[in-house]
Amino acid sequence: MRILLYEDNPAIRDALSVLLSGIPGLELVGAFPNPLQWERQLASLRPDLILMDIEMPGLDGIDATRAIHAALPDVNVVILTVFDEEDKIFRALCAGAVGYVLKNTTPDRLIAAIEDAHAGGAPLSPSIARKAVRFFQQLPPLKTTRPDYTLTAREHETLRYLVEGLSYKMIADRMNISYETVRTYMKHIYEKLHVVSMTEAVAKALREGLV
Amino acid sequence: MRILLYEDNPAIRDALSVLLSGIPGLELVGAFPNPLQWERQLASLRPDLILMDIEMPGLDGIDATRAIHAALPDVNVVILTVFDEEDKIFRALCAGAVGYVLKNTTPDRLIAAIEDAHAGGAPLSPSIARKAVRFFQQLPPLKTTRPDYTLTAREHETLRYLVEGLSYKMIADRMNISYETVRTYMKHIYEKLHVVSMTEAVAKALREGLV
DNA sequence: ACGTCAATCCCCGAATGTGGGGAGGTGGCA
DNA sequence: TGCCACCTCCCCACATTCGGGGATTGACGT
Questions:
Q1: What is the pTM of this model?
Q2: What CATH number has the domain spanning A146-207?
Q3: D19 C1' – A189 CA distance, angstroms?
Q4: For residue range B28-52, what is the model confidence (pLDDT) as tens digits?
Q5: To the nearest whole angstrom, how far is the Cα of A184 from the nearest Cα of chain B?
Q6: What rounded mean pLDDT belongs to chain B?
Q7: CATH 3.40.50.2300 domain position(s) in chain A
Q8: Regarding the domain with residue range A2-135, which homologous superfamily does it belong to in the CATH classification?
Q9: A172 reaches B (C-beta below 8 A)
Q10: Which of A17, A138, B7, B184 is the most buried (most CB within 10 A)?
Q11: Cα→Cα distances A136→A101, A211, B63, B132, Å
Q12: Kindly report the CA angle at B88 between B135 and B67, in degrees rounded to 5?
């Protein structure tokens, strides 16, 4: 398996070069401080897999991943970085990275990640995987049968206005009912949703797609 | 670590029971052919982690996962199944499963998955992980231009607690600051987000992913 | 005919949030 | 050194929400 490495820190680059070169079955075909020349390098070095840092001078690893994935979809790009921020993780995965490994990973786990990626897996460090999974859980309900709180039509309507940011008064006005009726509906909503404040109700409604 | 197993196939259930019982540090506190009695079983057996099959007579493992996750969010549910269809994977993860492991996994990898889940990771079999990652890549161009409201660190923290449904008092308590300071932050948040109430702030924060 | 339940309205008192100010301390940066 | 952004706290006055009640109407089902 031919591996290409993009990493701007010379110490880390050298350490990884030594590590990877010592593994039978792997061949490090190049190691560069940035992916500015990726087009030429990929054409001549023909890697099967790329280890990509994120913050590099000249060209961002995520942008490079996007470009590479668009041009050569068969090349597996694995992000290797210190950042475990959701923002970077999602941008990287959306850009086409097949894996996302943190730099504090032990050498043998890194090797396993490389083999995993080559075998059609998606190596993710545990904390990364958990964040990715949490993303699904926060996803608006696609076709999942969401819990049924048996809100009545008017209660449901009230909740929708609440999520829009309206006050009880405004909702009463919008629904052509009295302020007190809105209060009654809200009490029911609180009971049914097991919440005790507007903010909780709004959060629950939005998170569970009740609106 | 206390483990609970739901699996309808007696042979597999017994095999897993034997396997898990032989691991130091793990304690199999129960093994049932279906999760119909999950409420009572979880209350009495207090598992840290649940291994859940998908197709079981009486109650579907994914539905059970959703119910359990809603009632006891701290209990980690790991799906253990033969199905690697995208549909089931996504429904399971959206329902609150922290992991998804295929039954053709080797025993030591299964043990590793259990430990991984307990350590805050998200054990996914390689082919599952790849499908999950591909999901991100098919996602519509993610909001890279997320508006920047330049909330300060403390304001941002305040907003997060607000979305959790806490009152000013509770937030003050949680952040170890006075009620008045929370009020100050809220005023700033309202200005920066151009909103005038808690509900609007919560809705905007959730909709635009500010939390 | 009776019970149930959604929909509508009402009161009170207590708790909480909103808008307008002011003000001291810190640390970074020009 | 002085400015500025941030974090922290305070006061007043007013608006709004919350948690208990209670009440009437009409529709629907048995």
A1: 0.63
A2: 1.10.10.10
A3: 14
A4: 999 999 999 999 999 999 999 999 9
A5: 18
A6: 90
A7: 2-135
A8: Response regulator (3.40.50.2300)
A9: no
A10: B7
A11: 20, 19, 16, 9
A12: 110
